[in-house]
Specification:
By secondary structure, this protein is α/β, with parallel strands linked by helices. It has one domain. Helices cover 21% and strands 35% of the residues. It is built from two helices and five strands, in the order E-E-E-H-E-H-E. Strand 1 and strand 2 form a beta hairpin. The termini are far apart. The mean pLDDT is 78.
């Protein structure tokens, strides 16, 4: 795994440099309407800004996510509708 170097500044302007491991996330989100997907797009944006790769598995259109994030670290896998409340015994 790669390491991402980050700088953090305290109130006096001094910087502390540290490394965090790069992780890969698979984020499954329902494509039923866009409410879940638009909230997930915010989380995905923060994960990518933190230096991670994110694979989004969804039936929602890509534009829901790419309006929020433009990154080579964002990957998509289209699936049919994922909505677990529809699968009840």
């Amino acid at each position: 795994m790669g390491m991402k170097q980050q700088e953090e500044y305290d109130g006096d302007g001094a910087a502390a440099v540290y490394s965090t491991p790069k992780m890969v996330f698979a984020y499954y989100v329902t494509g039923h309407e866009f409410g879940h997907a638009t909230r997930v797009a915010k989380v995905v944006r923060h994960l990518i800004l933190a230096g991670h790769d994110v694979h989004v598995v969804t039936a929602a259109p890509e534009f829901v996510f790419t309006n929020e994030v433009h990154s080579p670290c964002l990957f998509f896998r289209k699936v049919s509708l994922i909505h677990f409340s529809l699968i009840q015994a």
